[in-house]
Structures are given as C-alpha cells and as structure tokens.
Amino acid sequence: MLRSNSYDYIICGAGCAGLSLLMRILCHKNLADKKILLIDKEAKTKNDRTWCFWEAADGFFDEIVFKKWDRISFFSNDFSSPLDIAPYQYKMIRGADFYTYCFNEINKKGNVEVVYGDVKGCKYDKEWIIFKIDDKEFRLLDASTQIFNSIYKPAEVKKGSVKLLQHFKGWVIETAKPSFNPEEATMMDFRVHQQHGTTFAYVLPFSNSSALIEYTLFTKNLLEDKGYDKALKSYINEFLKIDEYVIKEEEFGIIPMTNERLSFKGQDEWMIGTAGGQTKASSGYTFQFIQKQSQQIVDYLAANKSLNNLPETPGRFRFYDNTLLHILFYNKLPGDQIFSQLFKKNKPRQVLRFLDNESSLLEELKIISSLPTWPFLKAAINQL
Ligand SMILES: Cc1cc2nc3c(=O)[nH]c(=O)nc-3n(C[C@H](O)[C@H](O)[C@H](O)COP(=O)(O)OP(=O)(O)OC[C@H]3O[C@@H](n4cnc5c(N)ncnc54)[C@H](O)[C@@H]3O)c2cc1C
After folding, report:
1. From the CA of 287, how far away is ligand 1's center (Å)?
2. How many helices (H) and strands (E) does the chain have?
3. How far, in Å, from the CA of 254 to the mean position of ligand 1?
4. 317 CA to middle of ligand 1, Å?
5. Is 150 in the pocket of ligand 1 (CB under 6 A)?
6. Ligand 1 atom closest to 288 (CA)
7. pLDDT tens digits, residue range 261-313?
8. Mean pLDDT, to the nearest integer, of 12-31?
9. CB–CB of 116/133 below 8 Å?
10. How much is the pLDDT for 127?
11. What are the structural domain ranges in the chain?
12. Cβ of 124: how many Cβ atoms within 10 Å?
C-alpha cells in the first residue's frame, strides 16, 4: 500500500492542522522537496465545518476566505453594542474550500503520498517505525523521519480534570426578503435562554438574504437533536424576526474545552491541532492557534532547529483559561455575565488580543480587574 519505506515527514490527519502544516512545508523553498506521507481515514470531500477567526493582516489562507467583516456586534440582556474591532477583521473559511485548495496544491506535487486508512498506532522499534494502518503493519525506516499527529484521543478523566463540550448546530438559511446586513456579523448573542448553561447564537451574513446562524452551548452534555433545531427556529423568529426562509446547509460540531494538558511533545511524535493542545480551553477557538504553530514548526524545520525547543503556550494563558473553565464548569458565574463584562469594560481589540494569547501583562491585569473579583479569585486559588 505504501510506495516507499522512508519519508522525511509523516502527517497523520488531513484536517486543519495537518493541511496547514503541509501547505507551509510545500511553500518553503528549503522544505518543498521533502518526501511526505499524509494519512487520513477518509477523503476530505464534505463541507464539514466553517472556521471563523479574527486577523489583523492578510493570512496564509486569505485567498480562500469566503467572507470578511470589519464590524461585529455583541448582544446580551446587560450589554449590547456594535464592536469596533480594527485593526482586526472577522473572517470565515468554509471547510470544503480549504480542503479543495490544499488538495489541488498537494496533487500538483510528486513528493506527497496520500494514503487513506485508519491509523491505529505507531511505535519506534530500533531503526524502524512501525505503523498500523487499518489491519496492516508497515515498517518504515526511521532515519530522521518526523511524525506530526493530529488524531485526537480524549484522555482518561483524571481527578481535578474539568471538561466542557462546546457544541453547536448551524443552518445556512436563505430568506424570502432582505433580512441581514452583510457588512456586520454577530459574534455572540446571549439573549437566548441560558437554562442549560452558557448559551449564545451567532449570525454570519453572506448577503442581505443569506446567512449562517449557529446555536452554541458550553455544557457538560449534548442536547437531543431536536433541541438545537427548536432553539435555532425560535432565535430566527424571535430575535431576527424572520418567518420565511429555506435551510440550505446544516453544520454540527463538538469542540472539547478542557484543562487536560495536551502537549506538542507526544511519545514518539509531535502532536498538532486540537490533539496537541491548540484548542483554547475557555473559548474553543483553534484555527488561528493552529496557523501560528504551523508557521513556527516550518520555521524551525527550515532552520534545522530542534522541535524540542518549539515554544509552548505561555503558562499564564493556560492559567487564565483553566480559571475561566473552572468558573463555567462549576457554575460559579453565568457565562453571559462574564462575556458581557469583558466586552462592556474593555476595548474589543484588547479582548481579542487577550483571547489570542497575545496581550501584555498590563492589558491582562486591566481585563482581569474588569471581571467580578471574588469568583475569579477563588477559582484562581483553586488552580494554584
Ligand atoms: C464543526 C466545527 C466548527 C468549528 N469552527 C471553528 C471556528 O469557527 N473557529 C475556530 O477557531 N475553531 C473552530 N473549530 C475547532 C477547530 O478549529 C477544528 O476542529 C479544527 O478542524 C481542528 O483541527 P485539527 O487538525 O486538530 O482536527 P481536524 O480538522 O478534525 O483533523 C483531524 C483529521 O484526522 C483524521 N482522523 C481522525 N482519526 C483518524 C484515524 N484514526 N486515522 C486516520 N485519520 C484520522 C480526521 O478524518 C481529520 O481529517 C470547529 C470545529 C468543528 C468540529
């Protein structure tokens, strides 16, 4: 099944992290000719997700950005306002466009072998790497192969571990009448019922009659499928005041929000993407963290620097994330109140920088002091 028994790089998982890394390798003059094996359990043909993120300049995947917004808005019962996010733009990339774009590039290159199969394990044995794909075993010459793995396996629940699920259902709808302002996206709308825990909707309009509407929860358990449909329907009627529409596409997703320490350094491989801890525990945002880490990895590889020294997320950001996660998990404060205070009392660009793990200590102190002191202090002490 494999064409060769030795590769420079093996990438397990052709999702966001695997392909973001591979595309950067192929674009780098020092690395473009490396022999690469890419393995995924299935061909990436479906529009299985939509990525939203903010960025201050053109990004590596700007060519396939489906829609950008300069203005976003925030709603809650306590605070509602348009948010001036300059210098950032809020951007959206459709999964299907991302996969097509990457595989068009990959298929032009003779040095990337793509294999479809279920990766069941990988271990080092003297000078060999033994790979189990489906029920077959492959022996690959170790030489100096680097393995990058984005296959997420939830860790066992340990004492003190906290795990919420960010789960959401989205509909792309088309309305009979003009119903949206295509220049403005709703990032979070907390006016929806908070009976299950932190719950919000967001609206990403593509035109005045078409938008992706998502209903999102941060809770311990999923809802029954009809619960999401009912909530979406009622949000569209009650808050968007839309009666006539057609559902064109559906999306469902679950993102783990956990204080488990998922690290870049795996046992015999480098862990990337969600599997390598690139999902921000308190928000679920991942796309931009993957982009930043892919660029760092490629810079290190091109400069022949050891990946052992690749910088990890600064500890203080993990501490903030775990504190917030603790508060949400134990219902110490409602999420709608926390996010309202964040956006009400701070400049949006500072909040976004904070959520990107790029703020200065001074900015962080200001942001932390805008939140209710006691619950955060108690949760912080608990983390220590
Ligand atoms: C529906 C959805 C919407 C999201 N929206 C956003 C967003 O708007 N913004 C944001 O920042 N983040 C978002 N995320 C979170 C995150 O960005 C994505 O999950 C992202 O795809 C993570 O990248 P990844 O490479 O770690 O995992 P994936 O993209 O899931 O890639 C993992 C790959 O591994 C393959 N695989 C799994 N198991 C095996 C196996 N045993 N053998 C072989 N291959 C295997 C899978 O088929 C997949 O292709 C979203 C997630 C989901 C699910």
Report:
1. 9
2. 9, 18
3. 10
4. 22
5. yes
6. 11
7. 899 998 889 999 999 999 999 899 999 999 999 999 999 999 999 999 999 88
8. 98
9. no
10. 86
11. 9-49+94-155+260-309, 51-92, 163-257, 315-383
12. 14
